[in-house]
Design brief:
24% of the residues lie in helices and 16% in strands. The termini are far apart. The structure holds zinc ion (ZN). Zinc ion binds next to loops.
Length: 62
């Protein structure tokens, strides 16, 4: 009895659907903002992505 998968879908859970930097928690994203503030002097905010479910940074536009 052979068991063979008919579907050969390539699903890699480690590879995120987004090319943006992913932060697992908002706290992590906020920490990154604090870090970048000191270097780039830019205003950033966090948002939860509907694609990957993780957090990304977005620049605030004035
Ligand atoms: Zn995402």
């Amino acid at each position: 009895m052979k068991y063979k998968l008919t579907k050969t879908e390539k699903i890699n859970p480690i590879e995120p659907p987004c090319k943006k930097t992913i932060y697992i928690t908002q706290a992590e994203a906020l920490e990154a903002i604090e870090h970048m503030k000191g270097i780039h002097r830019i205003e950033l905010s966090t948002y939860q992505c509907s694609l990957c479910g993780y957090w990304h940074l977005t620049s605030k536009k004035k």
